[in-house]
Design a protein that fits this description.
Number of helices: 6
Distance between the termini: 71 Å
Strand content: 15-25%
Helix content: 55-70%
Shape: elongated
CATH topology: Rossmann fold
Oligomer: single chain
CATH architecture: 3-Layer(aba) Sandwich
Strand order of the largest sheet: 2-1-3-4
Number of domains: 1
Order of helices and strands: HEHEHEHEHEEH
CATH superfamily: Lumazine/riboflavin synthase
Length: about 190
């Protein structure tokens, strides 16, 4: 998907986002560290900008982008996270290795999100060369780490809103049931 004329950072406003009570994990690939460290800095700065404390941001490192899947899974299993941001960079080479890594990581992260219900954010650059990666790690195309952080906040907010809505529906159903039971009891008392 081309992002030439679109950026999540351009459509967000501070008043729309509330990070109170959120805890976010970030798993960072050490491969292509010049790029992934810039993505990490962008993500952390963005989370802090929107009110998160350093104590609510947990950063862990894995050797390469392929290991992001296991890193994310471990975060969901052993650390209480509302979302996990996965940051990596895979640059196409001369072999099909690029395709296998990209396919495996995207499938693995999607599977974890679907199975756990925890938002897993795909912040993995898949570029043709290092120049394209640098352009997306703080260069002319912005910092995709920032966008990943905004996506995490938005997805947590969506999940919490849906949970609140479901709780409200259940509460409404419970109140309606209590009202019907009260009506039945009153009818029984009238009949007696």
């Amino acid at each position: 998907m081309s992002t030439e004329n679109f950026s999540l950072t351009a459509v967000q406003t501070e008043t729309e986002l509330d990070t109170e009570g959120m805890r976010i994990g970030i798993v960072v690939s050490q491969w292509n560290s010049e790029i992934t460290r810039a993505l990490e800095a962008g993500a952390v700065q963005t989370l802090e900008k929107y009110g998160m404390s350093k104590d609510d941001i947990v950063v862990r490192y894995v050797p390469g982008s392929f290991e992001l899947t296991v890193g994310a899974l471990l975060m969901t299993e052993y650390v209480d996270m509302d979302a996990v941001i996965c940051l990596g960079c895979v640059i196409q080479g001369e072999t099909p290795h690029f395709d296998y890594i990209c396919r495996g990581v995207s499938f693995g992260l999607t599977k974890i999100a679907a199975e756990t219900g925890i938002p897993i954010i795909f912040g993995v650059l898949t570029t043709l060369n290092k120049e394209q990666a640098l352009e997306r790690a703080g260069g002319i195309h912005g910092n995709k780490g920032e966008e990943a952080a905004l996506t995490a906040i938005r997805m947590i907010t969506l999940k919490w809103d849906m949970m609140d809505e479901a709780a409200g529906i259940k509460k409404k159903q419970k109140l309606e049931k209590q009202k019907l039971e009260k009506q039945k009891l009153e009818e029984q008392q009238i009949e007696e």
